[in-house]
Amino acid sequence: MNKRTLLFILLTLPFSLYAVDKNPIGFDTPEQEQQYADLIEELRCVVCQNQSVGDSNAELAQDVRDLVRTKISNGESTEQITDFMVERYGDFVLYNPPLKAKTYVLWLGPLVLVLIAFLMLVYFIRRHAQTTVTPQKLSEEERQQLKQVLGK
């Protein structure tokens, strides 16, 4: 390996850190572990906003992981836990919020923006086509002059 490759590897290694669960208490059954893993990936960190609770190093994410772990250990279902989290933090805590009146903006916003961009594109293309002058066809006399100038 040359020095550049080694330097690149050393500089990029610190950026691949993952969240560390500070309370890695085990569960009684593999089903509970799977439920926990699924839930912490499904819940969004409300501090980081673009990370799941499982990927976030924020203190609030650790608190949510602890809360989820406790609720699973107490025998609560996934639906009960997600309902509690939505009640506490709102629909934004879910990566896939349900489609209802409060979340129309989340679901339809990107579609509306793409539609507006498409309409603007069509408008500018039509405007450009109307303002662009198309050259007139050459008459026979002009073609003969052009051939003489080009030497054909």
Describe the structure using short key phrases.
single chain; mainly alpha; 152 residues; 0% strand; Helicase, Ruva Protein, domain 3
Write the SSE topology:
Elements: H1 3-12, H2 30-42, H3 59-73, H4 78-89, H5 104-131, H6 140-150
Counting structural domains, the number is: 2
Order of helices and strands: HHHHHH
Number of helices: 6
Low-pLDDT residue spans: none
Radius of gyration, rounded?
30 Å
Tell me, briefly, the overall form.
Answer: elongated
Span between N and C termini? Answer: 62 Å
Structural class by secondary-structure content: mainly alpha
CATH class of the largest domain, named: Mainly Alpha
| Number of β-strand runs | 0
Query: What's the architecture of the largest domain in CATH terms?
Result: Orthogonal Bundle
Estimate the mean pLDDT confidence: 84
What does this structure look like?
- This protein has 152 residues and is mostly helical.
- The chain has two domains: 3-98, Helicase, Ruva Protein, domain 3, CATH 1.10.8.640; 99-134.
- The protein has helices at residues 3-12, 30-42, 59-73, 78-89, 104-131, 140-150.
- The termini are far apart.
Sum this structure up briefly:
By secondary structure, the protein is mostly helical. 59% of the residues lie in helices and 0% in strands.
